[in-house]
């Protein structure tokens, strides 16, 4: 697999990456992205539907943002959407040592077995847990 590893010590609060995003239309996501492995690399993103109502859509994250692996118990990177700027900002949640893998939480709805799940995830879309992470 792929992942991101620290090559230098990273202090708490350090911006690790500002990744641009490519928001997807609701229909584009349903008709194309969800039918491909690309769906494993998208993030929830507020997206207006054809009537202008904001739905939970998807966005493709470019740059390092698509390379973070998931960890429930060892998450050391948090992320925050900048809707207007069309970017996601990734920051260190704690001090990260050289050689340590940088991991985010993908939320509660995973397409794989979460081997380190500790039972603290909400049963919704993961937004409750993600919104409690302060970066």
UniProtKB/TrEMBL annotation:
An example Gene Ontology molecular-function term: histone H3K37 methyltransferase activity
InterPro entries: SET7_MeTrfase (IPR009207), SET_dom (IPR001214), SET_dom_sf (IPR046341)
Top-level lineage group: Eukaryota
Residue ranges annotated for the SET domain, each copy included: 1-107
Pfam family, one: SET
Name under which the protein is recorded: SET domain-containing protein
Organism in which the protein naturally occurs: Tothia fuscella
């Amino acid at each position: 697999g792929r992942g991101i590893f620290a090559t230098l010590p990273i202090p708490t609060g350090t911006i690790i990456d500002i990744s641009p995003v490519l928001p997807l239309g609701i229909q584009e996501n349903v008709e194309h992205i969800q039918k491909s492995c690309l769906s494993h690399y998208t993030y929830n993103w507020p997206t207006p539907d054809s009537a202008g109502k904001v739905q939970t859509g998807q966005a493709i994250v470019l740059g390092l943002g698509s390379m973070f692996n998931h960890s429930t118990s060892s998450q050391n990177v948090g992320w925050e959407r900048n809707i207007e700027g069309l970017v996601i900002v990734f920051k260190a949640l704690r001090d990260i040592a050289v050689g340590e893998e940088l991991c985010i939480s993908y939320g509660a709805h995973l397409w794989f077995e979460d081997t380190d799940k500790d039972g603290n995830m909400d049963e919704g879309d993961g937004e409750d847990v993600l919104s409690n992470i302060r970066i």
